[in-house]
Amino acid sequence: MTGTTGFDYTLTRSLDAPVHAVWQAWTIADDYAKWASAEEVVLDVRPGGAWSSVMVIPGGARVPLTGTYIEVEENKRLVMGMNVPGRDEPALMTMDLAADGEGTKITLSQTFDTAEDRDQAEAGSNMLLDGLTAFLATS
Question: Family, per the entry (predicted)?
Fold first, then answer.
């Protein structure tokens, strides 16, 4: 068997903000914390750099997350690995940005081993994009 098999999703949204503003929202810890419902955010945005945060999910539960940046192409692409308990390999998420008139087209994509993991991550990514959209509208 060759290639990557699994359960994947791709979300695309048009954001009413220039590419550099969207990039900064993802790569500046204070900005990320504001829209991602995260605390204790540390972002070392470079290939091999580590990131960590504590997500505060609805209901108040706190979920610590850690990972590394795999690919960093400023104002264009981030590939982030997230450490998942019980998995040898990190879960990868790709964020692509493209100018869309005055705004930005953002695309998030991931692939998982199970439909359940994919559905959970897709719901989480939709929540992230909702938070990002609201943050950019007030910035």
Answer: Belongs to the AHA1 family.
3-class secondary-structure state, position 61:
coil
The tokens for 71 are 């690919």
Residue 47 to residue 71: CA distance in whole angstroms = 5
Q: What residues does each domain of the chain span?
A: 10-138
What was the pLDDT predicted at 1?
A: 39
Which residue type sits at 86? G
DSSP code of residue 116: H
Task: Give 62's strand partners.
Answer: 56
Question: How far is C-alpha 21 from the chain's CA centre?
Answer: 15
**CA-CA distance, 134 to 15, in Å (whole number)?**
10
- The encoded tokens of residue 20 equal 């550099």
- What residues of the chain score a pLDDT lower than 50? 1-3
Q: How many whole angstroms separate alpha carbon 64 and alpha carbon 49?
A: 17
The topology under which CATH files domain 10-138 is Alpha-D-Glucose-1,6-Bisphosphate; Chain A, domain 4 (3.30.530)
Q: How much is the pLDDT for 4?
A: 54
